[in-house]
Amino acid sequence: MTPESSPDLAHIDVWLFDLDNTLYPAECEFMALIEARMTDFMQRETGLERTEARALQKKYLHEHGTTLAGLMANHGVDPELFLDEVHDVSMDGLTPDPALRAAIERLPGRRLIFTNGDARHADRVLEKLDLADQFEAVFHIASADYVPKPNPGTFRRMIEAHDIDPLATCFFEDSEKNLAPAAGLGMTTVLVGAHAARSDAAFVQYRTETLAPFLAAARLKQS
């Protein structure tokens, strides 16, 4: 990548990262373990057959932003019970990426996590990835009163909680729909993952399959 084609992020002071399938590749299938636990929970909660329970799980994800939000709205599920259960999976598929750590370390300014997962899950994943010391704070689902991204109110709550300027913020996400409200607020948006190159959404400014080379090549603010 030439300097002329490098991502121009010299205006960025705040680096905002989604967690799951963003700081590690979706191909490691860690989230697949969590989704399977969600289907187990859905089956037990609704009494549906597994195929039907999974279909309802995906319906809630689409309509409410997370499966949990749908379960809370339609079944009165205790969010902490759900989150504790579905995140209780093996972390063997997650491995530290020294190149990603080095790329994050070079970013000037503040670094934050913005996740629809809970605090304990975020802490476990960041520790496993050897990235826990790289982030100032985590804005998690309880911080948002269990209202998930892409709800615009959750973005506003996150901005207020951490006193950030959206115009000086870059947001990295594997979910295209979660970048739309960020772009509307003036954030620079980066879609991450093997699917990113196929996105033609106008609100996605940059696309990258993996984070480390993108961050390593970016033009940054000089101190």
From TrEMBL:
InterPro entries: HAD-like_sf, HAD-SF_hydro_IA, HAD_sf, Pyr-5-nucltdase
Superkingdom field: Bacteria
CDD domains hit by this protein: HAD_5NT (cd02604)
UniProt-listed Pfam families: Hydrolase (PF00702)
Official protein name in the record: Pyrimidine 5'-nucleotidase
Lineage start: Bacteria, Pseudomonadati, Pseudomonadota, Alphaproteobacteria, Caulobacterales
